[in-house]
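=== RUN LOG ===
request id: a7f3
mode: sequence -> structure
chains: 1
length: 401
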Amino acid sequence: MSYIQRGQPGYVRATLALFAGAFITFAILYTTQPIMPELSRQFHISPAMSSLSLSFATAALAVSMLWVSGVSDQWGRKRLMAVSLFSSAALSILVAVAPNYPTLLALRAVQGVVLAGFPSIAMAYVNEEFHPSSAGMAMGLYVSGTSIGGMAGRIITGMVTDLSSWRIAVFVIGIMSMVLATWFWFNLPRPAHFSPQKMGLQALVSRLSHAARDRILLGIYTLGFLLMGSFVTMYNYISYLLMSPPYHLSQTLVGFIFVVYLTGTFSSTWMGRAADSIGKSKALRISVTISIVGCLVTLFPSLLLKIVGLALFTFGFFGGHAIASGWVGQLAPSYRAQASSLYLLFYYAGSSIVGSAGGLFWSAYGWLGVVTIITALLIVAYGMDWVVTRAIRKRDAGPSA
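=== RESULT ===
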């Protein structure tokens, strides 16, 4: 059976379907991020408490990654991804009518659980169904979908919140996601290189154990934690900064700031292709360096420079994530789904833990505190890339090295 590759039938349909699934996942996952100041006002809670509306979803998603790969091995890749997309869209509608904040948090946690059925399985699908020569590009396009989804979700949520209310905004995201989930189901090609198999708990634990004990993979998982922790911290609190003096931006204008996600759409594809030619380690270090520069530029008081810095930061993040996520699939051929799940476990743990902790830095030290914690994380990520690369070279050199 042939693989999906550029220039052959099914390539465009497959990449667009994965793009749509990624769009839905990230539009829903980050629905509450641009309305955190609104949630703070309506429910009379602090910024750190408001950030839990995102952290509960990402934490639940991260933990669910541990078992969802086993479900996909029995149900099948496409079926599980579709169930995930339809269920999360339906839950968005329920979030929109949540009567109080504790109920909203509970619904967001459940939403995180069902969303877990898409990201890691999509990564496994790309590595299984696409030809190796096209896998880097396909992964880049998939990550582009995450950036477009995150951007569009935030812009739509911000605009509708200004025009009506945050509840109507979340409802609109839910309906839009339901329509796209239907399109996904009818357009994603059925897997040709995977057959559902019955896997017991012991087999699942064994595969997870192998994926968790690999020191090289652990380094890449840590990269995911550091990259995502810095990214979510930046976007969690930039809204508070821009809606306060001296900027006083409206919810709609803050939403449009997320247009800088377009840089991530380009960088994920471009850096994914660059990684195929110059090497993953070098491309990753370039991405992290760009993010550090962008983060520091946001310290300038000029609104224009803050947006430029945010664009650079976003460019670097999505490039780095595309490279690291693709790296996992290539290093774990026999337990790919489990390794992808563990990568995303660390990735979303970074979102939940660092994203909420960033609120304490914001409350205590303002934007300088936020930039400090982000920069520290990225410097550690740079060092972790060096550790991973050295370990790969040592392994490839053999016992005599």
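=== NOTES ===
The chain has a mean pLDDT of 87.
The chain has one domain: 11-190+203-397.
=== END ===
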